[in-house]
Amino acid sequence: MASSRDLAVFVRDALSAGRSRDEIAAVLTQAGWSAHEVSDALDGWADVPFAPPVPRPQPVVTARDFFVYALMFGALLFGAGYLVGLLHALIDHLLDASDYRSARSIRWAIAVLIVTLPLYLSLAARERARLLADPAVARSAIRSWMTNVTLLFAAAVLLGDLVAVIYAFLNGDFTLQFALKALVVAGVAGGIFGYYRAGSARGEAA
Amino acid sequence: MNRLLFVGVLVVVLGALVAGLVVVGGPGHARAEKRDDQRRADLRRIANKVICEAGSQARTARFCNGVVEAADPLTGAAYDVVRGEGAFEVCATFETVQKAATPWRERLHFDGARGCLRYERVMPSGQWVLKKR
């Protein structure tokens, strides 16, 4: 079996030899490479009349990106979780007078948010400024991974919320309190999902 | 991040933070709550000591061990112990409003901020029983 590195070398050599992209795609397909692999391999080289073939920039992985994006998305997920907790505690406090245990959890959530909110907003603003100044940042593989992990978390939470709502409905527990809490979860997770889905669509288009 | 979303997120989170602080109170209120917790615990210890000293219940003898030195955590004043015939009460002045539905609330008899644990002796067993509200 040839590796994808062999494939990249083959495509470069074929382009250098003056073969057309259609020809190369045809022989590769014949050799058993999938359409997706073929187009990925051809996309590695710019479609410009120049020899030797001009490489396109590839996704980059840097330790600095890992630090910044892990911190940023960590702050986002941690903060969002405690924002939901805080709003739930407030709903309990408003609708259920017998609730007396919430004070500590509210204080903890406030402390978490006081740290994570400015951290996330400042990191996000900095990365946005970096992205505007240097579009190469958009190719960060780690950024793309973290975005997709966040999307995964948000989607899982949304689906879990939906399951909880259906279960509560079937179980006869669908109270106003429950409905408001489910709405808070859906709002926070849906907001994060929508924002990063739109962002990753923009990133792919760019 | 576009400006509208940025402002929206900020408003929701800051709103939740402010609402949370309004609900639970600031650090001064939290300290007052802790002192009230201490007062509730002190009242129980003093009541146990009084029952023990009354000497009628052998099985409460373990409470007699050690000295109960309890004073109000804020003022340092001693708690009020009012002994009557077959009854007594220990009282403290609380700083925070004790919420109606809490488990300890029904044991304390309140007159304004002053809350008391009241015990009376039930005959013929001679046991001391906490009077609930």
Please provide the count of β strands of chain B: 5
Structural class of chain B: alpha+beta
| Helix content range of chain A | over 70%
Characterize the overall form of chain A.
elongated
Along the chain, the helix and strand elements of chain B come as: HHEEEEE
Largest sheet of chain B: 5 strands, antiparallel
Written overview of the protein:
The complex is a heterodimer of chains A (206) and B (133). Chain A has helices at 4-16, 21-31, 35-43, 63-95, 102-133, 141-170, 176-205. Chain A is built from seven helices and no strands. With 206 residues, chain A is mainly alpha-helical. Chain A is 77% helix and 0% strand. Chain A is elongated and about 80 Å long. The mean pLDDT of chain A is 87. Chain B is an alpha+beta fold and 133 residues long. Chain B is 38% helix and 22% strand. In chain B, strands 1, 2, 3, 4 and 5 form a five-stranded antiparallel beta sheet that branches. Chain B is elongated. The model of chain B has no long low-confidence stretch (mean pLDDT 81). The chains are: A mainly alpha (206), B alpha+beta (133). Chains A and B meet through helix 4 and helix 5 of A and helix 1 of B.
